[in-house]
């Protein structure tokens, strides 16, 4: 009945098995107003030169620089070119045009002098700044982009400037990889909903809201199911519905206990088990499989997470989050890990790599902040994890870590 | 007509003026399923001890440690205690109870032996692991929290573990500071919507979608208005509607040009100007004011951002994002800045502090990544900013910066 640790997949092996099966979702058109955070599923080209004309970069006066550089400091003001208007004629010698930021320069003007360096005198304008560099405060047509240039590439994630750029090349819709649709199914007869006072042996369902938030933060659209019972018919009906989603996450029902029906019911629904356990602490009893194809779409990725809340979080961050990202982005998708200095010493002892709730040290700030392992009561202790920024990673083995040593850190956010 | 740089507010002065006027919004009840990302507006206490009983941390056998430590290695299996069930009687001497992770220990049991270290033999179980520490694999009642403990405090931002913790103390709703409601009003006769091919002197409205994404990422609920004209009646009607929101951001219409009606129309609607220009590049012509009180609610915070897209982004990150955070969180809210090493040298020359689009250097990764200023064509050049991770900050003055020097970096995301 004993399980030999050597027979379990390592985290890297399990992650590879998940990523191999996480296939990019079919792209769909999305309006710009809704596209923030999505990854582009097409290359985007410019439809026009930008700027479409030689353009003023400041409010002031368009001039021929040769006039001022020849010693003139007073020019006659001709046209006034406000934004949205086009000059009607070329600039005559010894003439200036009042111009607003963003407006087109008149032909033969080659520079703009800021209004702050000028003084108006009746019909003339007096320049107080001395020499003018040809091209000063002028943006040449096409400097930003030429029609036909690729300005954004497939796979780039849409943020505010990229959305602005799409608008500026005439796109009001764009092809993106959609958000994965995720079903969260809590299981277990011992669970009651949060508003219920738990009776003897019962615990409140904290996993559903937690997984919903984790999946939502990872960019998924989440549907949270009611608690499914530890009983074949009810469980089967919930899991069958869950198999219409891109990803099905089940909490509870996958540990070594004898009432764990989840793997059995999944199998009866055509879900193929890829692995069951992983060399990780907490979260060893993690179940992963793939459902039958859904028409043209590939089968649902099915994750059975341990019912212990913190085991579930670690399993999610290590395996589900990378899978969700891989469904929605062609970029390589791995757990979000950085290297961090331990702010205090720590004694670690386990035959499995261990993820230990830790927070950024309040004494050091920003990107270089050290991390402090927290005083933790084990994998049900959410109160401590609620103060964590992530998990310090200690490799398998028994060792005393000194303050200042650098370890991997798995980010929660 | 010249503007003396000394008369403009510094960034710090302008930010202080904004933050003084950004008052926390009135708390509201929110269901857990919708509360991710919000800040708590109440202290939350535990309603019960957790765990509510001495609990098994692994699947295995509950024992009296004294039996095994006295030399026994075979005990009779009595009850089977699955999760969700309560033991019906105390453990007799020389007896073990099969127990699942999370189930309550029977009275008189003081340790749990993992199933992997045992072997079943008919009605007995044989222990192969040697000595058992009293308390091994047992979590004592109340170890995580005691009824009445404050488990989360006002101001803490709700993430997945904190939501799970709220569920575990019986909360299905919680008091939070709501998301600010933001109106985005683009102005300018030169603007056309993205799907239109711009005529001479026209440019596409890239600001609306960009500000919508920036405000959304900063946690706001955003309403994007159609383009308002450079004409009193139409502009007034749009801005009047905008003054029903918590924050009104207007793009365009606040530079030194003579058709800038925005400040005038705002004043006629009872908006008090707090400042107009700031010592910053790009983004100097930034307008900030406060609208008349809205019933019991304070007046709308009104930001007039420059129409140049990159000036608008910098103004947003420096002033609007901190304001949005201050409306929704009691924590100190400042622009998101870190200290970063320059990955290449850079010559800077300006009488204003300058925010220069830069990206994380591909050669160095993670928290310690250096930054590279990008080759930028000025404040309309979104194509370059679309490849940036933020803005390197160069103080006013003329200076050559060496690669390796450390500067402030304003984060885009």
From TrEMBL, chains A, B:
<dbReference type="InterPro" id="IPR038987">
    <property type="entry name" value="MoeA-like"/>
</dbReference>
<protein>
    <recommendedName>
        <fullName>Molybdopterin molybdenumtransferase</fullName>
        <ecNumber>2.10.1.1</ecNumber>
    </recommendedName>
</protein>
<dbReference type="GO" id="GO:0006777">
    <property type="term" value="P:Mo-molybdopterin cofactor biosynthetic process"/>
</dbReference>
<feature type="domain" description="MoaB/Mog">
    <location>
        <begin position="183"/>
        <end position="326"/>
    </location>
</feature>
<dbReference type="InterPro" id="IPR005110">
    <property type="entry name" value="MoeA_linker/N"/>
</dbReference>
<dbReference type="GO" id="GO:0046872">
    <property type="term" value="F:metal ion binding"/>
</dbReference>
<keyword id="KW-0501">Molybdenum cofactor biosynthesis</keyword>
<comment type="function">
    <text>Catalyzes the insertion of molybdate into adenylated molybdopterin with the concomitant release of AMP.</text>
</comment>
<comment type="similarity">
    <text>Belongs to the MoeA family.</text>
</comment>
<dbReference type="InterPro" id="IPR008284">
    <property type="entry name" value="MoCF_biosynth_CS"/>
</dbReference>
<dbReference type="Pfam" id="PF00994">
    <property type="entry name" value="MoCF_biosynth"/>
</dbReference>
<dbReference type="InterPro" id="IPR036688">
    <property type="entry name" value="MoeA_C_domain_IV_sf"/>
</dbReference>
<keyword id="KW-0500">Molybdenum</keyword>
<keyword id="KW-0460">Magnesium</keyword>
<dbReference type="GO" id="GO:0061599">
    <property type="term" value="F:molybdopterin molybdotransferase activity"/>
</dbReference>
<dbReference type="Pfam" id="PF03453">
    <property type="entry name" value="MoeA_N"/>
</dbReference>
<dbReference type="Pfam" id="PF03454">
    <property type="entry name" value="MoeA_C"/>
</dbReference>
<dbReference type="InterPro" id="IPR005111">
    <property type="entry name" value="MoeA_C_domain_IV"/>
</dbReference>
<dbReference type="InterPro" id="IPR001453">
    <property type="entry name" value="MoaB/Mog_dom"/>
</dbReference>
<keyword id="KW-0808">Transferase</keyword>
<comment type="pathway">
    <text>Cofactor biosynthesis; molybdopterin biosynthesis.</text>
</comment>
<dbReference type="GO" id="GO:0005829">
    <property type="term" value="C:cytosol"/>
</dbReference>
<dbReference type="InterPro" id="IPR036135">
    <property type="entry name" value="MoeA_linker/N_sf"/>
</dbReference>
<dbReference type="InterPro" id="IPR036425">
    <property type="entry name" value="MoaB/Mog-like_dom_sf"/>
</dbReference>
<keyword id="KW-0479">Metal-binding</keyword>
